Description:
The complex is a heterodimer. By secondary structure, chain A is mostly helical. Chain A has helices at about 35-45, 50-75, 85-90, 95-124. Chain A is extended. The model of chain A is unreliable at about 1-25 (pLDDT under 50). The interface between A and B is large, with 69 and 84 residues.
Amino acid sequence: MAEEEDETGFEEDLDDGAGGADGSHGKRKRLFSKELRCMMYGFGDDQNPYTESVDILEDLVIEFVTEMTHKAMSIGRQGRVQVEDIVFLIRKDPRKFARVKDLLTMNEELKRARKAFDEANYGS
Amino acid sequence: MADPARIKTDSTSAISLTIKHLKKEDNEDMPVTSNADIEFKDPASQSLKHEHKQDGDEEDDDEGASGQSASKKLKVEPEKKKEKRQKVDEDEIQKMQVLVSSFSEEQLNRYEMYRRSAFPKAAIKRLIQSITGSSVSQNVVIAMSGISKVFAGEIVEEALDVCEKWGDTPPLQPKHMREAVRRLKSREQIPNTKHKQILFH
């Protein structure tokens, strides 16, 4: 059976999700169409990327999230997904690891700043 | 093609750094630079610290940037390394500013899209929760959206390479995407737990 995201041959002719089997996710509604378009443009594609390419990318991202979630559930605390698990899974990939690190530290920083700001307001 | 998408990684960086700049972005999920100097003091990420300690353990005087003297302190690097990294960071920030100021309008548009685009948190949260069946914390959603974006970027960049190699022009076509996926798979950058390989039987 063809692998999920390969979408060989016959998928090309069929519309995404609008009837017919698209081989990967049936008639799932498109979750990220708008955001993915902006993202593809930001990463170097044309300003109007093809819908089929956006669909392929969406399927890939959903599969990526699914795989990561399953893996994260199987390590650390079983049945739950925690940040530590995600970071552990990502440890070998320098880009993703650095990105997660930055995002989490920035988030902490912003939370602290907001808290300090609120306290300052409350005090005055 | 110039690649602002490539995030520099410092392989020697430990997590203990001091707060330096705090440039607020409109979209809080997009840090301004990828090398923000932050002291990673979240007790919830204690286990993170232990996993990622790469430098030797050196107990030094704590920088305590925000004055928190929490009982769980990080092992701090020597002063010199910190200063050097701060200087490198400043250089990088300056270089980025010079670069961005010299962008053409089209480049500015693209850069803005690159920085601002993100996956909607609600949808990602719904997706993860539909798989786990239980609720997940906000940090998980933040982390997952972040790496998904990096993942999408890797695919698009590879597909653009393929497109150029085959002598085509953007917009990307599905055949480019598929070839990109095939290449990334061979480099094991795409997780695949469906195919169980039996080593010895």
